[in-house]
Specification:
The protein is of the alpha+beta class. It contains seven helices and four strands; from the N terminus they run ααααβααβββα. The longest helix has 15 residues. The protein binds FE2/S2 (inorganic) cluster.
């Protein structure tokens, strides 16, 4: 069961402090624990740090690794920048979409998986590439990408 978002915020404020510079640390922790940042967290962080809710929300919407909507327990981010696009990213993404039955930025009904598209993740020399729960995978083929996610399903979900 997911933890209380406001309890996580309170713990973060104890750990990181309630200054403006703590905003990203707090949001990062909440995003890691819940896979997204609920609206109530935006308000709580704003109140605790003195930053306006609009500014906190703009931080959430600016960074692609933050989400304001619930996501799956596992997040696959397929790079769509030029090196990966030229190396077959489209085929990799299509294979994942077909196998797991969701389009980019959707989540499976059982909350197992969210697929996202991301700008360059620094693995251009191993294009096409993706991050699976933050772990990099490169030199992908459609079959290799699907197998990585299938294994995830067998091992921890
Ligand atoms: S372009 Fe895909 S990792 Fe850089």
């Amino acid at each position: 069961m997911a933890r209380d978002p406001l309890k996580i915020v309170a713990e973060c404020i104890s750990e990181f402090g309630n200054e403006q510079k703590s905003v990203i640390q707090i949001l990062t922790r909440v995003n890691e624990e819940l896979s997204y940042i609920p609206a109530e967290v935006v308000d709580a962080v704003a109140e605790a740090t003195g930053v306006s809710p609009g500014e906190v929300y703009s931080v959430v919407s600016f960074y692609s690794f933050f989400s304001s909507t619930p996501r799956g327990r596992n997040i696959v981010r397929v790079c769509s920048t030029i090196s990966c696009a030229m190396a077959g990213q489209g085929d990799v993404l299509s294979a994942l979409v077909e196998e797991f039955g969701i389009t980019p930025f959707e989540t499976t009904e059982d909350s197992f998986l969210t697929i996202e598209i991301t700008p360059c993740i620094g693995l251009c020399d191993q294009a096409p590439a993706m991050l699976v729960n933050g772990t990099p995978h490169g030199n992908l083929t459609p079959e290799k990408a699907c197998e990585i996610v299938r294994r995830l399903k067998q091992t921890n979900n």
